[in-house]
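Quick log. Single chain, no ligands specified.
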Amino acid sequence: MAADRSPTGWLVSALGAIVLIVSVFLPWYALGFSAHGIAFVQQLDSEDVQRFGNATLQNEIGPMHAHLNALAGQQLVTVTARQAFSTISIVLLIAGGLGVLIALLALARQGAAAFDGMAPLLAVLGAVAAACVLYRMAVRPVESPDLVLTLREGAWLSLLGSLGLVVGGLWPRRLRSPRASGAALDDAWSRLSGWTPEG
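-> predicted structure:
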């Protein structure tokens, strides 16, 4: 029996690569102030008011501090992978672009044996992309006690797209049974039954 690559694997790789490309432009992180950061800003604010402000300004600073306390832990801005990383975002875009190109060409020319050797390349592209994403999920671009950086949907979708490339590249081959000719069937039947067709 001959092995033939299933179109499902190519389709999974193509979808994973598209998700990977889109995720680079989605929010990866949400940035906000920690309680420590808010306290630091309040301290600087109070010192400046005492040094340069008058009594009226000092009276108005109290309610402003209450508003600042409400910002602790809140997501103020979001950051995409394209904004946060120069090199890794390019690596992810290249991996996604190559993945889409290879998978769609293989789907368009289904049955062409030349593309069977490209499937492991898709798995390698996905593994490289997944390693980059996992690294940036573990090592955040900003490490400060004053700021809180939380993961957003872009990072998770990027990981999902990378794994889609890997799964599609490693998708098992389907088995294709060769077609038997009429003569071969007659020969097999005669061997099993002892009957020979009359010529």
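The mean pLDDT is 75.
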